[in-house]
Design brief:
Elements: H1 10-13, E1 20-21, H2 35-42, E2 45-49, E3 55-59, H3 62-70, E4 74-75, H4 93-99, H5 114-122, H6 128-151, E5 155-157, H7 158-163, H8 165-175, H9 182-193, H10 199-222, H11 228-237, H12 244-274, H13 277-285, H14 290-301, E6 310-313, E7 317-319, E8 322-324, E9 329-332, H15 334-337, H16 372-389, E10 403-405, E11 412-415, E12 417-419
Region (Disordered): 1-27
Family: Belongs to the cytochrome P450 family.
GO molecular function: heme binding; iron ion binding; monooxygenase activity; oxidoreductase activity, acting on paired donors, with incorporation or reduction of molecular oxygen
Length: 420
């Protein structure tokens, strides 16, 4: 049975209600779409209708989210011709390129065992030990950006001045992008993220970054440096296990997966802490609480909701009392699983001391975020340094005046005016 005809099965599985339309909008910056609580109460897997007209499953609860994300009968391979998409299957230039030129080495979209071959090549780049070596560089970058903010007056847009450039510059350090190229690299990554306002410009920026990375790898081939690209060139590329094209696509994947996510978490986390002054005061009094606060902010904000968690059953499989047929689309609602009261008491409350490390903000299973240790280090340094160096940081804007974005399933802020 395919996705298209599966609505007929609703009566058979006891979910007689007309499927709700998906995706749903966030209406409050502190909460996922309000319908999620109702879906979660209805069941761990619920059927919804996407704009193309197809009916898919959404996974609402924490335990079943982990089950779906670890079941080998559920695929993430978006190059499958019948892989579920939200809208009509358009063969846009962008989609074509993603499925062909950018696919080789882009292991986030691959199933085992192919996925594991590529991921294994990068594991040592993201260990806690390696990330600890990057910390002084991250700290220096954060300090420099704050120096610039302070030198520029008594107010700034935190998205533009800090949230966007910090992760971009950290990825430059990781990949070994030379200083002289950083402005070019940053302007293109910024344009790439403006996708909802300017899809054509975003596509062009993607292709320019891809070409830039291609050239960077070529230059590095002549003289491999002591950085991620250099090590991959000396290791798997030299051994004939990794092609030039796959290496370029892997670096592009790191940029795409690591940039917007972290860039959104920085201003959103600052905003959330400013709106919870008691908890912020506790962290200022005891900075050892920052790592725990980062976990709770990741859970509470769930910036990656369903967009990274699109899956398809490739065999019949029973999960949460529902029978998924081969071909059924299955999207995990990360933001719902992270508010599951079965796992997090007072799930709708921010509690920076709760110990939230078992959230699914970084996913679960074989695709669990490879860059999570780096993301944790960046967020911890970003929040702590900002609040230490600008103790009277504030926003004078009410919630209604702030501009949030949720396009494409990633939650963020378009801008965040702050002053001190
Ligand atoms: C707050 C920041 C971040 C969040 C919330 C986040 C979230 C996620 C999530 C949910 C996944 C799982 C996708 C899936 O199941 O298909 C993922 C995968 C991934 N992330 Fe992150 N991420 C963050 C930062 C980073 C950083 C900084 C990097 C690297 C520079 C990175 C690199 C990756 C890669 C390579 C994958 C694919 C892993 C695989 O398929 O094996 N992420 N991330």
């Amino acid at each position: 049975m395919t996705m298209q005809d599966s609505p007929d099965r609703d009566a058979a599985v006891g979910d007689a209600a007309t499927p709700r339309s998906f995706p749903m909008a966030r209406r409050c910056p502190y909460a996922p779409p309000p319908e999620y609580a109702e879906l979660r109460a209805r069941g761990p897997l619920v059927r919804v209708q996407v704009p193309s007209g197809a009916v898919i499953w959404v996974v609402t609860r924490h335990a079943e989210a982990q089950q779906v994300l670890t079941d080998p009968r559920i695929s993430t391979d978006t190059s499958r011709p019948d892989f579920p998409v939200l809208g009509k299957r358009e063969h846009s230039e962008y989609e074509q390129v993603m499925r062909t030129k950018l696919h080789e080495g882009s292991f986030i979209d691959m199933d085992a065992p192919e996925h594991d071959i590529y991921r294994r090549m990068l594991i040592t780049e993201f260990t806690v030990r390696r990330i600890n070596q990057l910390r002084p560089g991250i700290q220096q970058t954060a300090d420099q950006l704050i120096d610039d903010m302070l030198a520029g007056g008594a107010s700034a847009d935190l998205v533009e001045a800090f949230g966007l450039p910090l992760p971009s510059l950290v990825i430059c350090q990781l990949l070994g992008v030379p200083y002289a190229d950083r402005e070019y690299f940053q302007s293109r990554t910024r344009r790439m993220l403006a996708s909802s306002d300017d899809p054509r410009g975003a596509y062009e920026a993607i292709m320019e970054i891809r070409d830039y990375l291609d050239d960077l790898v070529r230059r590095a081939t002549r003289d491999p440096g002591d950085n991620l690209i250099g090590r991959l060139l000396r290791g798997p590329v030299a051994a004939g296990e990794l092609s030039h094209n796959a290496l370029v696509n892997m670096t592009f994947l790191l940029l795409v997966a690591g940039h917007e996510t972290t860039a959104n978490m920085i201003p959103l986390g600052v905003f959330t802490l400013l709106r919870n002054p008691d908890q912020l005061a506790g962290l200022r009094a005891d900075p050892t609480g920052w790592p725990g606060a980062v976990e709770e902010l990741l859970r509470y904000l769930s910036v990656v909701d369903w967009v990274a968690f699109d899956r398809m059953a490739i065999e019949d499989v029973e999960i949460g009392g529902q029978l998924l047929r081969a071909g059924d689309g299955v999207f995990v609602l990360g933001a719902s699983a992270n508010r599951d009261e079965r796992v997090f008491a007072n799930a709708d409350e921010l509690e920076v001391g709760r110990g939230a490390r078992h959230h699914v903000a970084f996913g679960y299973g074989i695709h669990q975020c490879l860059g999570q240790n780096l993301a944790r280090a960046e967020l911890e340094i970003a929040y702590r340094t900002l609040f230490e160096r600008i103790p009277d940081l504030r926003t004078d804007e009410p919630d209604e005046a702030l501009s949030f974005k949720y396009g494409g399933g990633i939650f963020g802020m378009n801008s965040f005016p702050v002053s001190w």
